[in-house]
Predict the structure.
Amino acid sequence: LTNTNEPIGVAVVGAGYWGPNLIRNLGNHPGFELRAVCDLDLDRAHKAVGRYSTVRVTSDLDEILDDTRIGAVAVATPPSTHLPVALACLGADKHVLIEKPLAPSTADARKLVDEAEARDLVLMCDHTFCYTPAVQRIREMIRQGVIGDVQYVDSVRINLGLIQPDINVFWDLAPHDLSILDFILPDDRRPVMVAAQGADPIAAGKECVGYLTLQLDGGAIAHAHVNWLSPTKIRTTIVGGSTHMLVWDDLQTSQKLSMFDRGVDLRADSLQGETREQALISYRVGDIIAPALPEIEALHAVAGEFEASIREHRAPLTDGHAGLRVLDILERADDSLASGGVAVPVSGEL
Amino acid sequence: LTNTNEPIGVAVVGAGYWGPNLIRNLGNHPGFELRAVCDLDLDRAHKAVGRYSTVRVTSDLDEILDDTRIGAVAVATPPSTHLPVALACLGADKHVLIEKPLAPSTADARKLVDEAEARDLVLMCDHTFCYTPAVQRIREMIRQGVIGDVQYVDSVRINLGLIQPDINVFWDLAPHDLSILDFILPDDRRPVMVAAQGADPIAAGKECVGYLTLQLDGGAIAHAHVNWLSPTKIRTTIVGGSTHMLVWDDLQTSQKLSMFDRGVDLRADSLQGETREQALISYRVGDIIAPALPEIEALHAVAGEFEASIREHRAPLTDGHAGLRVLDILERADDSLASGGVAVPVSGEL
Amino acid sequence: LTNTNEPIGVAVVGAGYWGPNLIRNLGNHPGFELRAVCDLDLDRAHKAVGRYSTVRVTSDLDEILDDTRIGAVAVATPPSTHLPVALACLGADKHVLIEKPLAPSTADARKLVDEAEARDLVLMCDHTFCYTPAVQRIREMIRQGVIGDVQYVDSVRINLGLIQPDINVFWDLAPHDLSILDFILPDDRRPVMVAAQGADPIAAGKECVGYLTLQLDGGAIAHAHVNWLSPTKIRTTIVGGSTHMLVWDDLQTSQKLSMFDRGVDLRADSLQGETREQALISYRVGDIIAPALPEIEALHAVAGEFEASIREHRAPLTDGHAGLRVLDILERADDSLASGGVAVPVSGEL
Amino acid sequence: LTNTNEPIGVAVVGAGYWGPNLIRNLGNHPGFELRAVCDLDLDRAHKAVGRYSTVRVTSDLDEILDDTRIGAVAVATPPSTHLPVALACLGADKHVLIEKPLAPSTADARKLVDEAEARDLVLMCDHTFCYTPAVQRIREMIRQGVIGDVQYVDSVRINLGLIQPDINVFWDLAPHDLSILDFILPDDRRPVMVAAQGADPIAAGKECVGYLTLQLDGGAIAHAHVNWLSPTKIRTTIVGGSTHMLVWDDLQTSQKLSMFDRGVDLRADSLQGETREQALISYRVGDIIAPALPEIEALHAVAGEFEASIREHRAPLTDGHAGLRVLDILERADDSLASGGVAVPVSGEL
């Protein structure tokens, strides 16, 4: 199947919120042939493929599992069903792309990782933001030493959001920030402790406003603010490095990513025999460079990485271990919340 | 002295970073007559009044204390000297306006508050931001019930800043956010616990990046991000209320304050039998209203309140107790930092 | 055909730049059944419907004309072919939706308008921007007298753009601004004169930077800046009214439309015995209101209006006459350009 | 007087809108000693120097003229009085800095230029914006060939403004844009023709909304939009060059000046055998560089240039001829307005 240049037969399971995006991108990608869409709600599945589609629609997962022309499955069902659905797909020898979070718990996620490795199949997490041109470029800049040592990361992801029926704001929004962190940080800056503060000011029965603080290896810090109640939408990540600093504003269209020369050392020097007033004047000394970024839809790149990892018989950039690491921090954040915000160690190697 | 309409004789002690602003504003205010400027560095004092000034300049505080035509003193010396300087002024029967923080510790600050009360003198904290038109309007909106119950406050005050020689970023920047909170929050939303997370990623010997989380009475939350290392300058405060939400962006010139209709309740309703996709579409339902704000320099209003509280023989809006409450939270935040970020009770009535 | 509730059979002719958007929107709209896509380049047509489509694809226009189940045709071929293609469709008794500009000249466009009227068929111009929620709301506000008399309109539509092979920047971009103007202005504010200034600073052989000035009935003015060479993208329209003013910034996501209270009269009053300095202080006196706008794709609303005008047997909001008026101004602007920028009368009733 | 390092004695005549800024900046500048302030309204003059000033205040111009310790005068009286006041100062052998516009007409301005040259005195126009760090940098970039050949300049200066009693919006606001143009453009890009379009939609008796189009030598174009009626404040200038483009947004605080790589040539190439859709995707290809700018008040630099030109016995950067060129365009714009917007030749060498 994967040795030829034939498109890989693929199915999408789950046609709710995210499924239609997978259907559209896998359907348009030359590396795949979309063979079926499966949802328990057949009407929803029909709606997702549209009125003029030749793609098979079914409410029976076995039809997918039994179809030997289907070599890969994208799973976009509710998280609570990820384990049985993805296990069944792996058991039928199909590569699996799975919507975040990988599973509702690290224990479940570990089973998926083990099964995929036992069967030598690709298990890829759809950490979509990691495939945006901005995040790809940030990772590259950090890995190539362009901004020096990473000193802190501050991320804000707030909006008027839907109060989820089953999960709190950490589990809904923080996977984005945590998967991005996991993707961009070098190996010597892994999270070692996490502390969480949350609030449920509207009595929704779960945290609607949340703050995560991660201590990173080497003394750096990362912080994420996630919030369903903010009237203003903000999607900004700042990465402070020892020589340069990055600001990624995902809501900007013309200048999503800016790199600033760092001026703090100069500040310290200027203290010698000078007043605060004089020092303040030279606050911002460096130029800003905003690199041009290609205009590529992130899910198209997700599809490409899924195809490439299948064909090249290798782990994808965002594999099951990446998904596990994100889940581990979310679980430890729950522990921190339960204990009043005290910092809790992260499990480390996963 | 204070019963007539004569301008009140005033002196400014300390002509460093903030002093010149006090000199300019007290000098221009019709309620005061600027009689002297005092600084140990006489050159600096001369520079602060300018080359063409008739205002007396001295390096001897006693000259101020002994001048009976001086009824009030503004103190803008380094915080470590606030206690002796202000105590001397109060001891000489002069009303005192004092730059934030009121003192380096609650213990010192308490002495100032007690002395002022014992001598029936005005002790006012220069919590400048509380006198901006935006904060005045926010307080008014909250007090008048315009936005409903306060549910959360999120404040970001970040910039490439000068690394202070003697204090960390919490003590440098958070007094602004804490004094604003103290000013705008109703009495049933006082902070009850504080947790602090900080980092010193550049090995400056003190926290340069900090996060404060305050639990407020009644289940609300407040959070402040203060940061000396951010390449991008942000000065934004969000106040979430049960019926409306406010966004104050102090860097905007034409629309500093926006009030949003709240749509979260609609979100919850829309969950009945609907998909997340449909609910997401109606995310922002309400209109935005941006009230026109007068263009007044905050320090001019500070001067006006200082004058009025002296003449009307009453406590100023930001009195010594307000200063004490801010200091108490800063000290408790130090405790939290020392204990790894655990939430620490705030002292309450001060 | 049009008396029942059956979806109207529709075809799209032209699958180049804009055709795929029509295919997607007409294909998703419940009022239509997409029966065929026609393009001389069959590969392009196949690509436009996608790999999994049941929609018929053809390079032969006669197949469309002969299909009696097709009651309506959307034409998105190059402007130079609009006349023969649309005339053929009208001649086969099909309602026609046509991409802007209606035709390459008013003479051609007039033939289309006459033919549609003679055959009692709908001829609709795809003036897409008129169907955005922002423009719909602006029209409504003007018509309902919310902003008073319209005094001026200033429109900026600039970007790094593709140098079109056959038309200049006026014919490429100004149809958007002119069709919006035509849509929102009341009948007593029609353009009466047009002057055009342009430049070709890159020696492209046609104007790449252009400025249009329209004198409106009643002394008002409208101005449009269109530009292919601008590194920064701007899409802003200001509508000044006698009581309020509107700013529509199409690149904003959260606040596309803002209504400002008007303060100029206060300015005039404040001149009595006051200095300019004092007057300047009160520059902006009014509140800003940003109405919530529904999130609807404009082309979906275009499809809806096309369907409704067919079923209700009436002229669409943007009918052939609207297209004619836009073309007339473009032709008169060419005349003005040729004569060095002198203002030229607009033809008026069309 | 001017051969020593002694500060130059200076007086300010006119303490209305702009005078206080000159008083503050000349008073703070080490190159000058502020000796007197003159205004017919003595109260206004007293208010301008403040309550604690040693600077002499007078309503009698002769006191200034007769004071031999005063070597230079800054004139900030109403334009209609510029000729007699400045002529008197020059006649008393004083160097003159004069607020824009230099005079109410080119004829008057010419008299000032001739008188200053006859007496070998400095005559400097206070074209303040030319001394901002952004404009200085733009001029430098253009002169050094950084952005290639200048192809177009587009300037927007709009705001809710005071309706001036004696002049229209062109004479009030366009001097800023015209003086900047005069300053930054290379000698082979001088304006050769000007066309003006204006409107008075509020029946103020003069143009309140205005558009200027300048044809520049070599086929380039410049355009300025000036407007007293705009609810939104915009101060943006775009300079298109053959290799790079500049955007100066004076209302930004952190990124006033941005330089964009130019991508239009690539666009043209990409047309070979490709569709418009593909070409559109690669619209913006280049990086953005935002140079760090020093934080200097423009009027401080004006004072410095005034001092330097006096001491070095040379023409200032913005001399009387620059003022004349600006006035000439304003007068020609009046001619264009009177003739319905037709382009009118500019006088050229002045």
User: Anything to note?
Assistant: The first helix of chain A runs from residue 19 to 28.
